[in-house]
Amino acid sequence: MSPIGFNLLAWSAPISEKMNPIAERLKAIGYDGIECFIDNQDISAYRQFGNHLQQLGLQSTTVMVVGPDENPASESARIREQALDFLKGAIDRAHAMGATIICGPMHSAFATFSRREPQPEEYAYSAEVLHAAGEYAKQANIVLTPEALNRFECYLCNTMEQLLDLIRRTDHPNVQAMFDTHHANMEEKRFPDAIRTIAPVLAHVHISENDRGTPGDGHIPWDDTFRTLAELNYTGWMTIEAFTRNDVDFANSINVWREYNDPWDIAENGLNFIKKMQAKYAR
């Protein structure tokens, strides 16, 4: 059965000792792992937090984004070089923390638009950078799982069909894919078809409600989601990604303007919901 994780972005983007009590409570609730945001903090912060997680018996995954100055899909060779350096820095930080997955829209710059549909050369540029990053990640035993985002946050990869094409172009075993229920709710026709499309390269799943609140409280087609993942014998992470305004700077950067649910409501009820659905569709 898939391990269950919780993304700390519900509390904070930066990692610090302030996250230790939160990790301890998440462990006590019953989580298998924690997901953290990777930014440009000193690598020692990730090493220290990773040591704390290991002492608690928690595993870890990470999430990241790239900006216009480190855009793998850029036509500028200099920016693509910066993108690779940025990805390598994220891999170093994730490795220091003991993480095994880096997920997120690392294929192209977040909320940066060319004002045209994605071009073949942009996929080629992105795949070249991701392949090189995958080779670097291989040394750290880390798998990169690029994420398709909705059309308001990204234009290169909105659907599982587009993401599958990019992963196949990348052609590296350490570059797989993730499925996020929040974004799929906006971009996919039917969840079962989308999940089956990405299944050959699926390595990570974000469990995220349509409003980014507590999973199970909204209108995501959860039965379709859990049934299809069970039919495909998916055993990777199921990690809750939910947002609040606890970290104002981060919330503003992703246009979160109101509270959806209290973080501990999301953590406690979300875990119970996932376990219930896993049991319902256990094979």
TrEMBL record:
Q: Out of the domains of life, which is the source?
A: Bacteria
Which ranges carry the Xylose isomerase-like TIM barrel domain?
24-262
SUPFAM superfamilies attached to this UniProt entry: Xylose isomerase-like
Q: Name one GO molecular function term.
A: isomerase activity
Question: Per its UniProt record, what Gene3D superfamilies does this chain match?
Answer: Divalent-metal-dependent TIM barrel enzymes
Does the record carry Isomerase as a key word? yes
The record's listing under InterPro entries reads: Sugar_Epim/Isomerase (IPR050417), Xyl_isomerase-like_sf (IPR036237), Xyl_isomerase-like_TIM-brl (IPR013022)
Indicate whether Iron-sulfur appears among the record's keywords.
Answer: no
Q: Which UniProt keywords apply?
A: Isomerase
Pfam families assigned to the protein according to its UniProt record, in alphabetical order: AP_endonuc_2 (PF01261)
The identity of this protein, by name, is Sugar phosphate isomerase/epimerase
